[in-house]
Amino acid sequence: MVRKKPPSSKSKPFAAAEKTENRRPSNSERSAYFARREAAKVLRSVLQGDAKRQAVGSIKSLVYSPSIKNKKATFALVCQTLKHLPIIKDVLESAAILNSKWKRQEELISIIVYDILFGQEISLVGGDAEKFLIGRKNALQSALAKLLVRKKVKSIENLIALYQPADVSKPCCVRVNTLKSDVDCALRELGKQFTVRKDDIVPDLLILPPHTDLHNHPLVLNGSAFLQGKASSMVAAVLAPKPGWEVLDACSAPGNKTVHLAALMGGKGKIIACELNKDRIKRLEDTVRLSGATNIEIRHGDFLNLNPRDSSFSKIRAILLDPSCSGSGTAAQRLDHLLPSHATDVTDTERLNKLSAFQKKALAHALSFPAVERVVYSTCSVNQIENEDVIISVLPLAASHGFQLVTPFPQWHRRGLPVFEGSEHLLRTDPIEDHEGFFIALFVKKSSINDSEEQTGIRNTPRALTTKKPHFKRHSHANRKFSVIPAVYSGVFKIWNSRLVMKRRIRRTKGLP
Ligand SMILES: C[S@@+](CC[C@H](N)C(=O)[O-])C[C@H]1O[C@@H](n2cnc3c(N)ncnc32)[C@H](O)[C@@H]1O
Protein backbone atom coordinates (compact mmCIF):
# COMPACT_ATOMS: atom_id res chain seq x y z
CA MET A 1 0.00 0.00 0.00
CA VAL A 2 1.34 3.44 -0.92
CA ARG A 3 1.00 5.91 1.93
CA LYS A 4 0.07 9.46 1.12
CA LYS A 5 2.61 11.95 2.44
CA PRO A 6 1.18 14.53 4.87
CA PRO A 7 1.31 18.01 3.31
CA SER A 8 4.55 19.68 4.30
CA SER A 9 4.48 23.32 5.24
CA LYS A 10 7.60 23.80 3.09
CA SER A 11 6.28 22.31 -0.12
CA LYS A 12 2.75 23.70 0.25
CA PRO A 13 3.01 26.82 2.33
CA PHE A 14 -0.43 28.04 1.48
CA ALA A 15 -2.30 24.87 2.37
CA ALA A 16 -3.70 26.47 5.51
CA ALA A 17 -4.98 29.49 3.64
CA GLU A 18 -6.52 27.44 0.88
CA LYS A 19 -8.31 25.24 3.38
CA THR A 20 -9.68 27.95 5.66
CA GLU A 21 -10.41 30.64 3.14
CA ASN A 22 -11.34 28.38 0.27
CA ARG A 23 -9.34 30.40 -2.26
CA ARG A 24 -5.91 30.49 -3.86
CA PRO A 25 -3.55 33.14 -2.41
CA SER A 26 -2.79 36.09 -4.69
CA ASN A 27 0.70 36.76 -6.06
CA SER A 28 1.30 39.58 -3.59
CA GLU A 29 0.29 37.31 -0.69
CA ARG A 30 2.72 34.69 -1.98
CA SER A 31 5.59 37.15 -2.29
CA ALA A 32 4.83 38.62 1.17
CA TYR A 33 4.91 35.07 2.57
CA PHE A 34 8.37 34.42 1.08
CA ALA A 35 9.67 37.87 2.09
CA ARG A 36 8.74 37.05 5.71
CA ARG A 37 10.76 33.79 5.54
CA GLU A 38 13.74 35.53 3.92
CA ALA A 39 13.56 38.35 6.47
CA ALA A 40 13.45 35.80 9.32
CA LYS A 41 16.62 34.18 7.96
CA VAL A 42 18.45 37.51 7.78
CA LEU A 43 17.14 38.55 11.19
CA ARG A 44 18.39 35.31 12.74
CA SER A 45 21.86 35.83 11.28
CA VAL A 46 21.96 39.48 12.35
CA LEU A 47 20.78 38.79 15.90
CA GLN A 48 23.08 35.81 16.39
CA GLY A 49 26.07 37.80 15.14
CA ASP A 50 25.07 40.71 17.35
CA ALA A 51 24.75 38.49 20.43
CA LYS A 52 28.23 37.05 19.84
CA ARG A 53 29.56 40.47 18.72
CA GLN A 54 30.75 38.69 15.55
CA ALA A 55 28.62 39.91 12.70
CA VAL A 56 28.80 37.83 9.52
CA GLY A 57 27.82 41.00 7.67
CA SER A 58 25.85 44.21 8.04
CA ILE A 59 22.08 44.07 7.65
CA LYS A 60 22.36 45.61 4.20
CA SER A 61 25.03 43.22 3.00
CA LEU A 62 23.08 40.19 4.24
CA VAL A 63 19.91 41.34 2.50
CA TYR A 64 21.74 42.13 -0.71
CA SER A 65 23.44 38.74 -0.87
CA PRO A 66 22.46 36.68 -3.94
CA SER A 67 20.44 34.16 -1.89
CA ILE A 68 17.79 36.77 -1.03
CA LYS A 69 15.31 37.14 -3.86
CA ASN A 70 12.83 39.77 -2.71
CA LYS A 71 15.44 42.25 -1.52
CA LYS A 72 13.36 45.40 -1.14
CA ALA A 73 10.56 43.78 0.85
CA THR A 74 13.01 41.73 2.92
CA PHE A 75 15.13 44.77 3.77
CA ALA A 76 12.10 46.79 4.79
CA LEU A 77 10.77 43.94 6.93
CA VAL A 78 14.11 43.34 8.69
CA CYS A 79 14.60 47.03 9.45
CA GLN A 80 11.04 47.61 10.56
CA THR A 81 11.01 44.49 12.73
CA LEU A 82 14.32 45.48 14.32
CA LYS A 83 13.02 48.98 14.92
CA HIS A 84 9.99 47.55 16.71
CA LEU A 85 11.79 44.59 18.30
CA PRO A 86 11.87 45.80 21.92
CA ILE A 87 8.13 46.52 21.68
CA ILE A 88 7.41 43.16 20.00
CA LYS A 89 9.37 41.36 22.73
CA ASP A 90 7.46 43.17 25.48
CA VAL A 91 4.15 42.42 23.79
CA LEU A 92 4.93 38.72 23.33
CA GLU A 93 6.10 38.38 26.89
CA SER A 94 3.02 39.99 28.31
CA ALA A 95 0.62 38.12 25.96
CA ALA A 96 2.33 34.82 26.94
CA ILE A 97 1.09 32.98 23.87
CA LEU A 98 4.26 31.20 22.73
CA ASN A 99 5.09 27.62 23.60
CA SER A 100 8.59 26.23 23.09
CA LYS A 101 7.86 25.25 19.47
CA TRP A 102 7.08 28.85 18.52
CA LYS A 103 9.89 30.23 20.65
CA ARG A 104 12.31 28.28 18.45
CA GLN A 105 11.03 30.33 15.49
CA GLU A 106 11.42 33.60 17.35
CA GLU A 107 12.57 35.62 14.31
CA LEU A 108 9.67 34.58 12.08
CA ILE A 109 7.24 35.15 14.93
CA SER A 110 8.66 38.66 15.49
CA ILE A 111 8.27 39.48 11.81
CA ILE A 112 4.67 38.31 11.67
CA VAL A 113 3.84 40.13 14.91
CA TYR A 114 5.34 43.26 13.36
CA ASP A 115 3.03 42.82 10.37
CA ILE A 116 -0.01 42.21 12.57
CA LEU A 117 0.54 45.14 14.92
CA PHE A 118 2.28 47.74 12.77
CA GLY A 119 2.49 46.53 9.17
CA GLN A 120 0.46 45.04 6.37
CA GLU A 121 -1.69 42.42 7.96
CA ILE A 122 -3.68 42.49 4.75
CA SER A 123 -1.25 40.04 3.10
CA LEU A 124 -0.84 37.77 6.09
CA VAL A 125 -1.85 34.60 4.36
CA GLY A 126 0.34 31.58 4.30
CA GLY A 127 1.75 29.16 6.81
CA ASP A 128 1.01 27.84 10.26
CA ALA A 129 2.85 30.65 12.04
CA GLU A 130 0.65 33.29 10.39
CA LYS A 131 -2.48 31.31 11.21
CA PHE A 132 -1.41 30.83 14.82
CA LEU A 133 -0.68 34.52 15.38
CA ILE A 134 -3.73 35.87 13.57
CA GLY A 135 -5.78 33.64 15.86
CA ARG A 136 -4.21 35.47 18.80
CA LYS A 137 -4.46 38.97 17.35
CA ASN A 138 -6.72 40.20 20.18
CA ALA A 139 -4.25 39.05 22.84
CA LEU A 140 -1.42 40.82 20.98
CA GLN A 141 -3.36 44.05 20.57
CA SER A 142 -4.42 44.08 24.18
CA ALA A 143 -0.80 43.50 25.32
CA LEU A 144 0.25 46.45 23.15
CA ALA A 145 -2.46 48.66 24.65
CA LYS A 146 -1.24 47.76 28.16
CA LEU A 147 2.34 48.55 27.14
CA LEU A 148 1.29 52.04 26.03
CA VAL A 149 -0.26 52.63 29.43
CA ARG A 150 2.76 51.23 31.25
CA LYS A 151 5.19 53.43 29.29
CA LYS A 152 2.93 56.44 29.77
CA VAL A 153 2.67 57.28 26.07
CA LYS A 154 -0.45 57.96 24.06
CA SER A 155 0.43 56.76 20.58
CA ILE A 156 2.40 54.02 18.88
CA GLU A 157 4.60 56.77 17.33
CA ASN A 158 5.55 58.00 20.80
CA LEU A 159 6.24 54.46 21.92
CA ILE A 160 8.50 53.85 18.92
CA ALA A 161 10.23 57.20 19.48
CA LEU A 162 11.29 55.98 22.92
CA TYR A 163 13.45 53.35 21.29
CA GLN A 164 14.81 55.26 18.28
CA PRO A 165 18.19 57.02 17.94
CA ALA A 166 18.83 59.97 15.66
CA ASP A 167 18.66 59.48 11.93
CA VAL A 168 21.67 59.90 9.65
CA SER A 169 21.38 60.86 6.04
CA LYS A 170 24.46 60.44 3.90
CA PRO A 171 25.14 60.82 0.19
CA CYS A 172 25.28 57.66 -1.87
CA CYS A 173 28.89 56.85 -2.85
CA VAL A 174 29.84 54.47 -5.60
CA ARG A 175 33.40 53.52 -6.52
CA VAL A 176 33.97 52.77 -10.16
CA ASN A 177 35.78 49.47 -10.64
CA THR A 178 38.35 50.47 -13.24
CA LEU A 179 39.03 46.80 -13.98
CA LYS A 180 35.65 46.70 -15.71
CA SER A 181 34.68 50.28 -16.50
CA ASP A 182 36.02 53.82 -16.42
CA VAL A 183 34.90 56.80 -14.42
CA ASP A 184 33.59 58.91 -17.31
CA CYS A 185 31.64 56.00 -18.71
CA ALA A 186 30.02 55.28 -15.32
CA LEU A 187 29.38 58.99 -14.81
CA ARG A 188 27.53 59.19 -18.14
CA GLU A 189 25.55 56.03 -17.43
CA LEU A 190 24.47 57.07 -13.92
CA GLY A 191 23.90 60.65 -15.09
CA LYS A 192 21.04 59.41 -17.28
CA GLN A 193 19.01 58.75 -14.12
CA PHE A 194 20.63 60.65 -11.24
CA THR A 195 22.48 63.81 -10.30
CA VAL A 196 26.04 62.58 -10.05
CA ARG A 197 29.47 64.15 -9.61
CA LYS A 198 33.07 63.05 -9.14
CA ASP A 199 34.37 63.16 -5.58
CA ASP A 200 36.78 66.03 -4.96
CA ILE A 201 39.37 63.88 -3.19
CA VAL A 202 39.09 60.17 -3.91
CA PRO A 203 39.77 59.22 -7.53
CA ASP A 204 37.21 56.87 -9.11
CA LEU A 205 34.54 57.75 -6.54
CA LEU A 206 31.17 59.12 -7.65
CA ILE A 207 28.75 60.94 -5.34
CA LEU A 208 24.97 60.79 -5.70
CA PRO A 209 22.18 62.31 -3.61
CA PRO A 210 21.23 60.67 -0.29
CA HIS A 211 18.72 57.81 -0.54
CA THR A 212 19.71 56.95 -4.11
CA ASP A 213 19.27 53.20 -4.30
CA LEU A 214 21.82 51.66 -6.63
CA HIS A 215 21.70 48.11 -5.27
CA ASN A 216 19.93 46.85 -8.35
CA HIS A 217 21.65 49.12 -10.86
CA PRO A 218 23.29 47.13 -13.71
CA LEU A 219 26.69 48.77 -13.03
CA VAL A 220 26.58 47.48 -9.45
CA LEU A 221 25.14 44.09 -10.33
CA ASN A 222 27.83 43.43 -12.93
CA GLY A 223 30.72 44.64 -10.75
CA SER A 224 31.54 47.77 -12.78
CA ALA A 225 30.91 49.78 -9.63
CA PHE A 226 30.97 49.04 -5.90
CA LEU A 227 28.83 50.73 -3.29
CA GLN A 228 31.51 51.96 -0.94
CA GLY A 229 31.64 54.95 1.38
CA LYS A 230 34.05 57.81 0.81
CA ALA A 231 36.22 57.17 3.88
CA SER A 232 36.38 53.45 3.15
CA SER A 233 37.45 54.24 -0.42
CA MET A 234 40.25 56.46 0.85
CA VAL A 235 42.15 53.55 2.43
CA ALA A 236 43.41 51.66 -0.63
CA ALA A 237 43.98 54.99 -2.40
CA VAL A 238 46.25 56.04 0.48
CA LEU A 239 48.25 52.82 0.25
CA ALA A 240 48.59 53.49 -3.51
CA PRO A 241 50.25 50.23 -4.60
CA LYS A 242 51.84 50.30 -8.04
CA PRO A 243 50.90 47.89 -10.83
CA GLY A 244 53.10 44.82 -10.57
CA TRP A 245 53.67 45.07 -6.78
CA GLU A 246 53.02 42.26 -4.34
CA VAL A 247 50.57 43.44 -1.70
CA LEU A 248 49.03 41.91 1.41
CA ASP A 249 45.52 42.68 2.63
CA ALA A 250 45.82 41.41 6.20
CA CYS A 251 42.18 41.31 7.31
CA SER A 252 40.33 41.33 4.05
CA ALA A 253 36.70 40.12 4.05
CA PRO A 254 34.29 41.10 2.61
CA GLY A 255 36.96 42.39 0.24
CA ASN A 256 35.88 45.91 -0.72
CA LYS A 257 39.35 47.29 -0.17
CA THR A 258 41.01 44.18 -1.66
CA VAL A 259 39.31 44.68 -5.00
CA HIS A 260 39.98 48.41 -4.83
CA LEU A 261 43.69 47.54 -4.50
CA ALA A 262 43.38 45.25 -7.53
CA ALA A 263 41.83 48.10 -9.54
CA LEU A 264 44.56 50.54 -8.50
CA MET A 265 47.14 47.97 -9.60
CA GLY A 266 45.41 47.61 -12.96
CA GLY A 267 45.04 43.91 -12.27
CA LYS A 268 48.86 43.54 -12.45
CA GLY A 269 51.02 42.09 -9.69
CA LYS A 270 49.68 40.01 -6.83
CA ILE A 271 47.46 40.54 -3.81
CA ILE A 272 47.34 38.07 -0.95
CA ALA A 273 44.01 38.49 0.85
CA CYS A 274 44.12 36.98 4.32
CA GLU A 275 40.94 36.31 6.30
CA LEU A 276 40.42 34.49 9.58
CA ASN A 277 36.67 33.98 9.58
CA LYS A 278 35.56 31.02 7.46
CA ASP A 279 32.01 32.33 7.07
CA ARG A 280 33.32 35.57 5.60
CA ILE A 281 35.63 33.83 3.10
CA LYS A 282 32.64 33.07 0.87
CA ARG A 283 31.71 36.75 0.75
CA LEU A 284 35.31 37.63 -0.02
CA GLU A 285 35.32 35.14 -2.90
CA ASP A 286 32.05 36.60 -4.23
CA THR A 287 33.47 40.15 -4.11
CA VAL A 288 36.66 39.09 -5.89
CA ARG A 289 34.68 37.20 -8.57
CA LEU A 290 32.37 40.16 -9.13
CA SER A 291 35.32 42.56 -9.48
CA GLY A 292 36.86 40.52 -12.30
CA ALA A 293 40.28 40.66 -10.58
CA THR A 294 42.45 37.66 -11.35
CA ASN A 295 45.51 38.55 -9.27
CA ILE A 296 44.03 37.95 -5.80
CA GLU A 297 45.07 34.90 -3.80
CA ILE A 298 42.76 34.22 -0.83
CA ARG A 299 44.32 32.73 2.31
CA HIS A 300 42.11 31.45 5.08
CA GLY A 301 43.98 31.94 8.36
CA ASP A 302 45.21 34.23 11.09
CA PHE A 303 47.29 37.17 9.86
CA LEU A 304 49.26 37.01 13.10
CA ASN A 305 50.37 33.50 12.16
CA LEU A 306 51.84 34.54 8.81
CA ASN A 307 55.59 34.33 9.11
CA PRO A 308 57.14 37.53 7.70
CA ARG A 309 60.34 35.55 6.95
CA ASP A 310 58.45 33.02 4.82
CA SER A 311 59.67 33.22 1.21
CA SER A 312 56.10 33.73 -0.07
CA PHE A 313 56.09 37.14 1.61
CA SER A 314 59.61 38.22 0.71
CA LYS A 315 58.37 40.55 -2.05
CA ILE A 316 55.40 42.08 -0.19
CA ARG A 317 55.87 45.84 -0.64
CA ALA A 318 52.61 47.16 0.80
CA ILE A 319 50.22 46.02 3.52
CA LEU A 320 46.65 47.15 4.07
CA LEU A 321 45.58 46.51 7.64
CA ASP A 322 41.89 47.12 8.28
CA PRO A 323 41.40 44.94 11.35
CA SER A 324 38.26 44.09 13.28
CA CYS A 325 37.19 47.12 15.28
CA SER A 326 34.26 48.30 17.34
CA GLY A 327 32.65 49.85 14.25
CA SER A 328 31.62 52.81 16.37
CA GLY A 329 32.17 55.17 13.44
CA THR A 330 29.70 53.46 11.11
CA ALA A 331 27.23 52.00 13.59
CA ALA A 332 24.39 54.26 12.45
CA GLN A 333 25.08 53.68 8.78
CA ARG A 334 25.13 49.91 9.19
CA LEU A 335 21.82 50.21 11.06
CA ASP A 336 23.50 48.80 14.16
CA HIS A 337 21.46 51.18 16.28
CA LEU A 338 18.59 48.82 15.55
CA LEU A 339 20.39 45.89 17.18
CA PRO A 340 19.85 44.86 20.79
CA SER A 341 23.55 45.16 21.70
CA HIS A 342 23.41 48.85 20.89
CA ALA A 343 21.16 49.30 23.89
CA THR A 344 24.06 48.36 26.13
CA ASP A 345 26.61 50.91 27.25
CA VAL A 346 28.68 52.30 24.39
CA THR A 347 31.81 52.16 26.48
CA ASP A 348 32.21 48.40 26.57
CA THR A 349 35.69 48.75 28.04
CA GLU A 350 36.65 45.11 28.13
CA ARG A 351 35.77 44.62 24.48
CA LEU A 352 37.59 47.79 23.43
CA ASN A 353 40.70 46.74 25.34
CA LYS A 354 40.70 43.36 23.60
CA LEU A 355 40.23 44.94 20.18
CA SER A 356 42.96 47.46 20.84
CA ALA A 357 45.39 44.75 21.98
CA PHE A 358 44.76 42.83 18.74
CA GLN A 359 45.08 45.96 16.61
CA LYS A 360 48.42 46.85 18.21
CA LYS A 361 49.77 43.32 17.66
CA ALA A 362 48.53 43.25 14.06
CA LEU A 363 50.05 46.64 13.21
CA ALA A 364 53.40 45.69 14.78
CA HIS A 365 53.27 42.45 12.78
CA ALA A 366 52.55 44.31 9.53
CA LEU A 367 55.54 46.59 10.07
CA SER A 368 57.85 43.59 10.43
CA PHE A 369 57.57 42.21 6.87
CA PRO A 370 61.07 42.69 5.46
CA ALA A 371 60.35 44.18 2.02
CA VAL A 372 57.34 46.25 3.01
CA GLU A 373 57.58 49.95 2.17
CA ARG A 374 54.05 51.14 2.91
CA VAL A 375 51.58 50.12 5.58
CA VAL A 376 48.14 51.64 5.88
CA TYR A 377 46.18 51.13 9.11
CA SER A 378 42.47 51.92 9.17
CA THR A 379 39.42 51.44 11.36
CA CYS A 380 35.79 52.49 11.21
CA SER A 381 35.96 53.42 14.86
CA VAL A 382 36.01 56.81 16.57
CA ASN A 383 37.68 55.52 19.74
CA GLN A 384 41.14 56.80 20.53
CA ILE A 385 42.05 53.44 22.03
CA GLU A 386 41.62 51.80 18.59
CA ASN A 387 43.23 54.63 16.67
CA GLU A 388 45.83 57.08 18.00
CA ASP A 389 46.73 54.78 20.91
CA VAL A 390 47.47 51.94 18.47
CA ILE A 391 49.73 54.21 16.42
CA ILE A 392 51.55 55.49 19.53
CA SER A 393 52.19 51.91 20.64
CA VAL A 394 54.12 51.03 17.46
CA LEU A 395 56.08 54.25 16.92
CA PRO A 396 59.36 52.96 18.43
CA LEU A 397 59.11 49.72 16.44
CA ALA A 398 58.20 51.62 13.27
CA ALA A 399 61.23 53.85 13.80
CA SER A 400 63.50 50.85 14.28
CA HIS A 401 62.36 49.49 10.88
CA GLY A 402 62.89 52.89 9.23
CA PHE A 403 59.21 53.90 8.89
CA GLN A 404 57.71 57.29 9.42
CA LEU A 405 54.18 58.60 9.44
CA VAL A 406 53.17 60.36 6.25
CA THR A 407 50.14 62.61 5.75
CA PRO A 408 47.43 60.98 3.66
CA PHE A 409 45.28 63.45 1.68
CA PRO A 410 46.92 66.60 3.13
CA GLN A 411 44.00 68.70 1.84
CA TRP A 412 41.61 66.82 4.16
CA HIS A 413 40.81 69.05 7.13
CA ARG A 414 40.11 66.52 9.91
CA ARG A 415 43.29 65.04 11.36
CA GLY A 416 44.16 62.77 14.31
CA LEU A 417 43.42 63.66 17.90
CA PRO A 418 46.26 65.86 19.12
CA VAL A 419 47.49 63.37 21.68
CA PHE A 420 51.08 63.12 20.48
CA GLU A 421 53.44 65.18 18.37
CA GLY A 422 52.83 64.18 14.79
CA SER A 423 49.17 63.24 15.16
CA GLU A 424 48.44 65.82 12.42
CA HIS A 425 49.65 63.16 9.98
CA LEU A 426 46.71 60.95 10.88
CA LEU A 427 43.36 61.24 9.14
CA ARG A 428 39.96 61.11 10.75
CA THR A 429 36.44 61.42 9.42
CA ASP A 430 33.51 62.42 11.62
CA PRO A 431 30.50 60.10 11.94
CA ILE A 432 28.10 63.03 11.89
CA GLU A 433 29.71 65.68 9.67
CA ASP A 434 31.28 63.25 7.21
CA HIS A 435 28.56 60.60 7.72
CA GLU A 436 31.00 57.90 8.82
CA GLY A 437 33.77 57.82 11.38
CA PHE A 438 37.00 56.41 9.98
CA PHE A 439 40.62 56.58 10.97
CA ILE A 440 43.59 56.20 8.61
CA ALA A 441 47.33 56.17 9.29
CA LEU A 442 50.07 55.67 6.72
CA PHE A 443 53.58 54.46 7.47
CA VAL A 444 56.16 54.78 4.71
CA LYS A 445 59.75 53.55 4.78
CA LYS A 446 62.04 56.55 4.63
CA SER A 447 64.09 55.07 1.78
CA SER A 448 61.01 54.97 -0.49
CA ILE A 449 59.40 58.22 0.53
CA ASN A 450 60.19 60.42 -2.48
CA ASP A 451 59.10 57.73 -4.82
CA SER A 452 55.75 57.39 -3.09
CA GLU A 453 55.21 61.15 -2.99
CA GLU A 454 55.42 61.21 -6.77
CA GLN A 455 53.00 58.37 -7.05
CA THR A 456 50.33 59.52 -4.63
CA GLY A 457 50.67 63.22 -4.13
CA ILE A 458 51.09 62.49 -0.45
CA ARG A 459 53.10 65.09 1.40
CA ASN A 460 56.23 64.12 3.23
CA THR A 461 56.21 64.74 6.95
CA PRO A 462 58.04 67.85 8.05
CA ARG A 463 58.72 66.18 11.39
CA ALA A 464 60.07 62.67 11.45
CA LEU A 465 58.68 60.49 14.20
CA THR A 466 61.27 57.87 13.79
CA THR A 467 63.86 58.87 16.28
CA LYS A 468 62.05 59.91 19.39
CA LYS A 469 59.37 58.46 21.59
CA PRO A 470 55.85 59.95 21.46
CA HIS A 471 55.86 63.13 23.45
CA PHE A 472 52.96 64.10 25.71
CA LYS A 473 52.60 67.43 27.42
CA ARG A 474 50.20 68.73 30.02
CA HIS A 475 47.04 70.30 28.71
CA SER A 476 47.29 74.07 28.46
CA HIS A 477 44.95 76.52 26.77
CA ALA A 478 47.84 78.42 25.21
CA ASN A 479 49.11 75.39 23.37
CA ARG A 480 46.00 73.30 23.09
CA LYS A 481 46.41 72.01 19.57
CA PHE A 482 49.40 69.73 19.96
CA SER A 483 49.92 69.27 23.65
CA VAL A 484 47.16 67.45 25.38
CA ILE A 485 46.93 64.65 27.88
CA PRO A 486 45.60 61.59 26.01
CA ALA A 487 42.97 60.80 28.62
CA VAL A 488 41.35 64.20 28.19
CA TYR A 489 40.69 63.62 24.52
CA SER A 490 39.68 60.07 25.12
CA GLY A 491 36.85 61.47 27.21
CA VAL A 492 35.95 64.01 24.57
CA PHE A 493 35.69 61.28 21.99
CA LYS A 494 33.54 59.12 24.17
CA ILE A 495 31.15 62.04 24.22
CA TRP A 496 31.44 62.46 20.47
CA ASN A 497 30.78 58.77 20.02
CA SER A 498 27.74 58.96 22.21
CA ARG A 499 26.08 61.59 20.02
CA LEU A 500 24.77 58.62 18.10
CA VAL A 501 22.87 57.47 21.16
CA MET A 502 22.24 60.87 22.63
CA LYS A 503 18.50 60.49 22.52
CA ARG A 504 18.68 57.41 24.69
CA ARG A 505 20.86 59.23 27.20
CA ILE A 506 18.34 62.07 27.41
CA ARG A 507 15.61 59.54 27.97
CA ARG A 508 17.62 57.89 30.74
CA THR A 509 18.22 61.23 32.40
CA LYS A 510 14.52 61.83 32.34
CA GLY A 511 13.98 58.44 33.93
CA LEU A 512 12.38 57.06 30.78
CA PRO A 513 13.25 53.52 29.62
C1 LIG B 1 36.94 45.46 9.24
S1 LIG B 1 36.87 43.91 8.50
C2 LIG B 1 37.75 44.15 7.00
C3 LIG B 1 36.93 44.84 5.94
C4 LIG B 1 37.62 44.82 4.61
N1 LIG B 1 38.92 45.45 4.67
C5 LIG B 1 36.80 45.50 3.55
O1 LIG B 1 37.01 46.68 3.27
O2 LIG B 1 35.91 44.86 2.99
C6 LIG B 1 38.00 42.99 9.43
C7 LIG B 1 38.15 41.57 8.97
O3 LIG B 1 39.27 41.02 9.61
C8 LIG B 1 39.03 39.66 9.90
N2 LIG B 1 40.00 39.26 10.95
C9 LIG B 1 39.91 39.46 12.28
N3 LIG B 1 41.00 38.97 12.89
C10 LIG B 1 41.81 38.47 11.93
C11 LIG B 1 43.07 37.84 11.93
N4 LIG B 1 43.72 37.61 13.09
N5 LIG B 1 43.61 37.44 10.76
C12 LIG B 1 42.94 37.67 9.60
N6 LIG B 1 41.73 38.26 9.53
C13 LIG B 1 41.17 38.66 10.68
C14 LIG B 1 37.59 39.68 10.34
O4 LIG B 1 37.01 38.40 10.25
C15 LIG B 1 36.98 40.67 9.34
O5 LIG B 1 36.51 40.01 8.21
UniProtKB/TrEMBL annotation:
Q: Basic and acidic residues composition bias: which ranges? A: 18-27
| UniProt keyword terms in alphabetical order | Methyltransferase, RNA-binding, S-adenosyl-L-methionine, Transferase
Disordered: annotated span = 1-31
Q: Which Pfam families match?
A: Methyltr_RsmB-F, NSUN5_fdxn-like, NSUN5_N
Q: Which GO terms describe its biological process?
A: rRNA base methylation
Where does the SAM-dependent MTase RsmB/NOP-type domain start and stop, copy by copy?
162-446
Active-site residues (renumbered):
380 (nucleophile)
Reactions this protein catalyses: a cytidine in 25S rRNA + S-adenosyl-L-methionine = a 5-methylcytidine in 25S rRNA + S-adenosyl-L-homocysteine + H(+)
Output a single Gene Ontology CC term carried by this record: nucleolus
Molecular function terms, GO-annotated = mRNA binding; RNA methyltransferase activity
Could you tell me which InterPro entries the record lists for this protein? MeTrfase_RsmB-F_NOP2_cat, MeTrfase_RsmB-F_NOP2_dom, NSUN5_7_fdxn-like, NSUN5_RCM1_N, RCMT, SAM-dependent_MTases_sf
Cite the binding residues for S-adenosyl-L-methionine.
251-257, 275, 302, 322
What does the similarity note say?
Answer: Belongs to the class I-like SAM-binding methyltransferase superfamily. RsmB/NOP family.
The molecule here is called SAM-dependent MTase RsmB/NOP-type domain-containing protein
Q: Give the organism, scientific name.
A: Manihot esculenta (Cassava)
Organism phylogeny:
Eukaryota, Viridiplantae, Streptophyta, Embryophyta, Tracheophyta
